[in-house]
Design goal:
7 strands; alpha+beta; three-stranded antiparallel sheet; single chain; four-stranded antiparallel sheet
Length: about 250
Amino acid sequence: MVSIRVNDRCIDEDAILREMQYHPAENAGAARRAAAEWLVIQSLLLDRAGAIGLDLSDEAAAIGTVIEREVDIPAPEEAECRRYYDNNPSRFRSPDLVEAAHILLPAAPDDADERARAEALAAELIELLSVSPERFGEIARAQSACDSKHNDGRLGQLSRGDSVPEMETFLFNLEDGQLSPVPVKTRYGIHVVRVDKRVEGRSLPYEAVSEKIADYLKEASWRRAFRQYVQLLAGSASISGFDIAAAESPLVQ
């Protein structure tokens, strides 16, 4: 592959391959681009450090000094934090919780016959339990393939993300004490599901999250400012072999 050049610095393929370990991504191509981008940014920052007379014997320290001097973001004002809080109420709630139990009838996802049999049995159990709900624990101990059978099928307290999406569709829509009216299908098999108790999430007061909001807004502002700063550096640099968004404005002083 063609080497990347940033002004007088050359970034070869070996350097990119070494850097890739620090940039996990969905695939090798994405990891390589992230590694190459950082090496380009690093080169721009080192050139800037040299231009303002910093000692380059410790490159990491020189880069840190450049960023500290030239990418300065003030702490967000309280009015900005409160505005973010008011505009994003769903971000500042305690989680919805459910206490639930299930009976798992195992069935491989690619075995249609096994899943049909398990679904038919689950439907029978639902019909039985709708008449005799007190037998749930007994049936779980006898039929369930989940370790929860040792606790009468009880799964304990669950929040969103603790179970697979197919299960959550039912867990967070059933009422207290309600048995799912139909078998629940997941990759693990077929489930008979009961919700014992629901605890709705509550809005958290601003005072409880104000520090977290301030940290988030400051980091978001810093990231934007750093990206803009890099674009300004790139706009006055000679870069070949890599496509990086370059600003046309003069270098930040």
